[in-house]
Design goal:
This is SDR family oxidoreductase. Keywords: NADP, Oxidoreductase. Pfam families: adh_short. Belongs to the short-chain dehydrogenases/reductases (SDR) family. It comes from Hymenobacter defluvii. There is one protein chain. By secondary structure, the chain is of the alpha/beta class. It has a single domain, classed as Rossmann fold. The protein contains eight helices and eight strands, in the order βαβαβαβαβααβαβαβ. An eight-stranded mixed sheet has the order 3-2-1-4-5-6-7-8, sandwiched between helices. α1 crosses α7, α3 runs parallel beside α4 and α4 runs parallel beside α6. The chain is globular, with a radius of gyration of 17 Å. The model has no long low-confidence stretch (mean pLDDT about 95).
């Protein structure tokens, strides 16, 4: 049975991604900052008949927590097939580029950018033991510089000084990592689930968690002929097609 680690998976898109992949027969390690919340999420999935799921405590903004999760997982398995870097924060408001408190920006980057790097680097050795390792970095359309430069884009006016730039940086890291792993079985992609109604945005988005998770699961399970080093988005046309950087 293939194995998956999903960060920030105790609710919303992360939890739904865990649900969909578990239903496809993957064994899910459901990452959560709070083990109590993780246990509650796992209990919910098991009540639905999905028994191939287990909680693991991991705070992506805390390197010690990441290393502890790696040690725990290393006692359970010799390889990891899929890493989904889903955990993220919006950050405190306001985020005007000219006036935002730089500590707010640092906090957002610690989770959305440096957290992804630390998790990826820490678990890379287990991923290397997989025959078909996959990494999905959950990003946002607000990280696209091309779209931010297009006045006709529906989200053109949504300019945040911390959140958007953190995802732009994440996209850049995805490109570099995919390039470094280009001659291996790895597939590394940035995936934007689209503007989805979740706790993250006070349920203001038009998309559903089911559709959001579907695109993440799609690129977490691509075959050997699948893309790598690309940016895909539900906001491109609703079908998870390629998004411009």
């Amino acid at each position: 049975m293939k194995t998956v680690l999903i960060t920030g998976a105790n609710r919303s898109i992360g939890l739904e991604t865990a649900r969909q992949l578990a239903a496809q027969g993957y064994f899910i390690y459901l990452g959560s900052r709070s083990l109590e919340n993780g246990n509650e999420a796992v209990a919910q999935l098991k009540a639905e008949g999905l028994t191939n799921v287990e909680p693991i405590q991991i705070d992506v903004a805390d390197l010690t927590s990441i290393q502890a999760a790696r040690a725990e997982l290393g006692q359970k398995l010799d390889s990891l097939d899929v890493l989904i870097n889903n955990a993220g924060i919006n950050g405190a408001m306001p985020q005007a580029a000219a006036t935002a408190d730089t500590q707010i920006i640092r906090d957002v980057f610690d989770t959305n950018f440096f957290g992804v790097i630390n998790v990826t680097q820490t678990f890379l050795d287990l991923l290397r033991q997989s025959e078909a390792p996959r990494i999905v970095n959950v990003t946002s359309g607000l990280g696209s510089l091309t779209m931010h430069s297009d006045p006709s884009w529906k989200y053109y006016a949504v300019k945040l000084g911390a959140y958007g730039p953190s995802k732009t940086a994440l996209n850049a890291y995805t490109v570099v990592l995919a390039y470094e792993l280009r001659d291996t079985p790895f597939k590394v992609n940035a995936v934007d689930p689209g503007y989805t109604a979740t706790d993250f945005n006070q349920h203001s988005g038009p998309g559903t968690v089911e559709d959001a998770a579907k695109i993440i699961a799609k690129y977490a399970t691509i075959g050997a002929d699948g893309p790598t080093g690309k940016f895909f988005s539900n906001d491109a046309d609703g079908d998870g097609d390629e998004m411009p950087w």
